[in-house]
Queue: 2 jobs
Job 1
Amino acid sequence: MPEKLTEQDRRLLDALQENCRLSNQELAERAGMSTSACWRRVRALEEAGLVRRYSALLDIEKSGLGFQAIVHVTLTRHDHRHVDTFIAEIRRRSEVLDCYSTTGEADYHLRVVCRDLAAYNRFLEDFLFRLPGIANVRTNLVLKDIKQHSAVPVQTGPG
Amino acid sequence: MPEKLTEQDRRLLDALQENCRLSNQELAERAGMSTSACWRRVRALEEAGLVRRYSALLDIEKSGLGFQAIVHVTLTRHDHRHVDTFIAEIRRRSEVLDCYSTTGEADYHLRVVCRDLAAYNRFLEDFLFRLPGIANVRTNLVLKDIKQHSAVPVQTGPG
DNA sequence: CAAGAATCGGTAAATTCTACCATATTGAAG
DNA sequence: CTTCAATATGGTAGAATTTACCGATTCTTG
């Protein structure tokens, strides 16, 4: 369990975020450490939960998902039962890639992908609109992915 | 270059999204194919650009980023020069993890992570507010990550 | 300084990757 | 239907990698 992340940790995490299928040898080389130390360190970072998982990031359009939207959802003021079912149902639906609870006008920001507009319409009518306690839904179509980095700028200082 | 994705492709991509460090053997087993065929297929999916990259997904808080916000940005109507610099600068800044151009009230939806509120304030004052052509910026603090799946529900049908 | 704990780099066995093979399957043309 | 070419298939062996363990070194702590 790394209390503080070292500069080497940061380099390891940067490299693994860029390409997590690097061999341990190449990883060690980039981070400037021996293969043994590198292997141990990576394990420690995994077990500390710093690395949530290793994932293949797909091209969303080539995967057959032509439709993408940012959806702002507001719930009726705030019955806990409704909040819990909302969260549980959102987590269950594979079309919802991300969901954040936020301050501001909307309670939740979702990112939803579907095959096409028709599929999104079904998502709304058959699923989202039918959840209990939904007060307002506002859809913003995604015109273009400007940036999808998903690589976190790891902080190394007093952590 | 897969014209249509097969059911096996879909299973491969699902498995790789869940854990891209599975051994080729285990991958082949899950997708119900021989190791040779599996290895070739994965290569093909990579070369077709369906797999953008393999990445370690980090725990954002454990990485030292305690502050997260969804930021809505509107540009003054729409000078192309301003749009281009805006996009280029946004791509340069590591605090901006995602950025989508959207329909609706705001032109762009950003997700920004920083060490703390002070760092975010610097991001705004020293960077975002100084970009040319910014008409409006609205910040929504992220209270809680409800879901960060980042695994795309791959479509296998007529693609 | 001395004792204990933690970390280091190196090593070897087990596993895995990767390129190649001969065979089987597919698709088109005669 | 048959033939031929093109493609896909499963198996295999050498190369590379992973992974657990070793003694040696460094770092704490009293």
Note: Residues 33-37, 40 of chain A lie near DNA strand C (CB under 10 Å from a C1').
Job 2
Amino acid sequence: MSKTPARIRLADAAFALFDERGYEQTTVDDIAERAGVGRTTFFRHYRSKEEVIFPDHDRLLAAIKDRLVTSSHSTALVAVSDAVRLVLLHYIEEGDLARRRYALTSKVAALRDREIASVARYQRLFREFIADLMGDPTATASLRAELMAANVVAAHNHVLRRWLRGESSDPVAEMDEAMREVLALFPAPSVHEASGDDGTTVIAFRTGQDLDTLLPSLRRFIEGTTGH
Amino acid sequence: MSKTPARIRLADAAFALFDERGYEQTTVDDIAERAGVGRTTFFRHYRSKEEVIFPDHDRLLAAIKDRLVTSSHSTALVAVSDAVRLVLLHYIEEGDLARRRYALTSKVAALRDREIASVARYQRLFREFIADLMGDPTATASLRAELMAANVVAAHNHVLRRWLRGESSDPVAEMDEAMREVLALFPAPSVHEASGDDGTTVIAFRTGQDLDTLLPSLRRFIEGTTGH
DNA sequence: CCCGCCAACGGTACTGAGTACCGTAAATAC
DNA sequence: GTATTTACGGTACTCAGTACCGTTGGCGGG
């Protein structure tokens, strides 16, 4: 009669018990017992007690990797945005489950650490991807890749957490907006390769000088960077 | 005759055994035995097997918090820079020990995760500090704080790892340079309050258009933001 | 000198996560 | 039908971490 697969029953039992007694106060034996299976079966479906809460981080990480490797240079930044959106949509799809997990990670330090470690793996993937497509192995370029990856992940976390707390009604739009804000921090490096335009590059800075005072040096700078 | 305190002997024994057999292959009993003490004594000095490798993350975290709270608004960014430098100097002071730890965290996933979790605590501290001094509780301001904290920490990690790998001879200078680069990403929010200048704000973007084509809209934009 | 005190240590025993291995029942292939 | 896979339960083990108790060795005050 109990046709629901053991894997599901175990997850349900685990979340129910975590809610009732708390995470540390719940043993794997408790979970298995409530799910009506043996202790061995639990570890057959989940490698650890923590993994029952984060069941598909591995799959998600693989999906991100796939999205990144199947991208040409011209669509690189789009690929990063897409990959981030992938993660966000996954959480949204989970719906209430994601929020219950958030409640747990907010209370239990061990789970928060685990979550952070997972996010760090995403970040590492992004960093390597960005560094690869920049080609430049300089220290400053490497730092740049590190910063971009950190920004992308931080923006994602920010929007995701807002949604998890119920502070956002349209997280996807917020994510797009946040990503725009992040990418605006970095002068887009793709333009020069993507097209042979002789356009204008405007660098971000602030100065007390008037725009007209700056124009000569601006022109000089642009001529210096574009060749002539 | 063995006058060296048990705490030191335990740390030495632990690092030696980790080098010889690897982290997972070394039990706490092994460490205690080599240090010539009982197993209980180990846990009296270190709360866990991992903590023998990261003995003073708590102290460092407290030091950072101290540095941050003892700062006025005008010296806020200086305080963040100082706090980051504090961490870097701590590692440099450790010297070879820091490098042995780095070798371990590079190989053992559990230790890497632990390290990442510690760094995340620094980042959280920075984020809260920056968000506090911004005052603005808007979503975009909150995102901004998140991004700045992520950048500061990412820059620190980048320089620190370079030094740990022996790729940097003057990490402190590199850190200053990296911090400059990070702060350059964010238009300094203090300019408008600090002085009543009617200067020019240049926004970063790229376009295919020529500079002269852009000038009118640039002027319009500037007049729109500065009042008239 | 002895007493009481306190800190550091060792030993034993326990809980609980995770692993290894073995046996078994049902489903599926052939 | 038999053989093989698949999923499961049970037992026994290792090891990290906790709790508790007893012991030793100073150390100052009487």
Note: Chain B touches chain A through 52 residues (CB under 8 Å).
